[in-house]
Amino acid sequence: MQQPNVRPYLITKSLSPENQETPIPFVQSDRVDKRLFFKRNHFSYPHLLSSSLYSLEIDGSVINPIKISLQHILKLPAKEVHTVLECAGNKRGFFRPKVFGEQWGKGAISQGVWRGISLKTLLQFTGLLDIEKEVVFIGNDYGKTTNSKQLHYFARSLPIEQALHEDTIIAYQYNGNPIPFKHGFPFRLIVPNWYAMASVKWVKRIEVIEKSFDGPFQCEDYIYYPNKENDAGAWPVTTKNVNSTIQKPLHMDELDTGKHIVKGIAWTGIGLITKVEISLNNGKSWNECELITTPKPYQWVQWEYEWNAAEKGEYTILSRATDSEGNKQPLIAYWNRKGYGYNAVDQIKIKID
C-alpha cells in the first residue's frame, strides 16, 4: 500500500495572538519553508491597505524626511541576508524554576534568505545629523501591553552603529517570494545577529532620535532581569547566545541496538560555530561531531555523529556548541525572570531495546 503524503505542521502555542513553533526536528534544509516558519506575535495581525499604497516614512533627526513607496524601493539595489531568526524566548519552557510567558519548546527559530534594501542606503536618502543616537522602528501591529491599559504599537530601536551595519536590511522578500503577510509584509526589519524581537514586522515608520528610546518593548520587555523580586542588575536582550538542538533521534524514542545517526543544528549570535560535541553518558565525557555544512555568518550549521549503540538501556544524549568567540553552551542556563536567551546544553532521553 502506498504511504500517505504526510507533512509536518506548525506547533500551536496560542491562537490569540497567534504563536506557533517550527517543527524543528523535521527541518532538513538551511531554508525553512514559509509554511513552517515560526510565528511570534504580541498583538492581533494588523489591517493593511492595498499593496499599491504601501510606503515607508523616515523622519526625526534627519536632514530630509522622506516617504518612500514599495515600488520605489523595489527599483533600488537589493541585498540578501541568509540568517537564523530566533525568538528571545525560544526554549523558555525549559527554565527551572519555571517563568511566566509563552512556554516555547525548541521551535521558536527558523532560517532563510531575506532580500531587501540596506537600511544604511535608505538613511543616506535622508541624510543624518551629527546628534543622532538611535533609530526607532514602528510596526503596524498594536494593542495593550501587560503593564499598561494604553494602546501601543510594537516599536523598538537600534543603536545607530547597528542600524548602519551593512547587513541590517529592510526586507520585502523571503526565499525569493514576497514576505508572507503573517511574517511582516510589506516591510520587515532584519537584524541578523540579534534575537528576532529586533526584526520588527510590518514596519511603517522609521524615526532617527537623539536619545534612548523608552517604549515598553525596549525598557520593560526584552530585558534580562536576574532577580525574581526586583530589577537590580538588569540589561537588554541583544545578540543571540550560542546554542544547539538535537533533531534526531526524537526525545523518548525507542531504538534497536546498532548504529544510529545523532544529528542537529547549532548557531550563535557573534562569530561562527567552530565545534559541536555530544555526550552519551550524561556529560561525563564528550565526543566531537562532524559539521555537515560549512559554518557561515548568521546561519546555523548542521552536524551529526555516528553512534554504535551496542548495549541496551536508557540514555541521555547531550549536545553543546562552541563558537569562534570562545562561547560555549553551559550545563545550566542563566535564569532570568522573563525567560530569555535559554542556551543550556540540549538533551534528549532515549531507550535502546
Automatic annotation (TrEMBL):
In Pfam terms, one family for this protein is Mo-co_dimer
This protein's record includes keyword Oxidoreductase: yes
Going by the UniProt record, its keywords in alphabetical order are:
Metal-binding, Molybdenum, Oxidoreductase
Biological process terms from the Gene Ontology for this record are:
sulfur compound metabolic process
Q: Which coenzymes or cofactors are required?
A: Mo-molybdopterin
- The Oxidoreductase molybdopterin-binding domain sits at 44-216
Where does the Moybdenum cofactor oxidoreductase dimerisation domain lie?
Answer: 240-351
| InterPro entries documented for this protein | Ig_E-set, MoCF_OxRdtse_dimer, Mopterin_OxRdtase_euk, OxRdtase_Mopterin-bd_dom, OxRdtase_Mopterin-bd_sf
Annotated GO molecular function terms are: heme binding; molybdenum ion binding; molybdopterin cofactor binding; sulfite oxidase activity
Gene3D superfamilies assigned to the protein according to its UniProt record, in alphabetical order: 2.60.40.650, Oxidoreductase, molybdopterin-binding domain
PANTHER family in the record: SULFITE OXIDASE, MITOCHONDRIAL, SULFITE REDUCTASE
The molecule here is called Molybdopterin-dependent oxidoreductase
Q: Native species of this protein?
A: Ornithinibacillus caprae
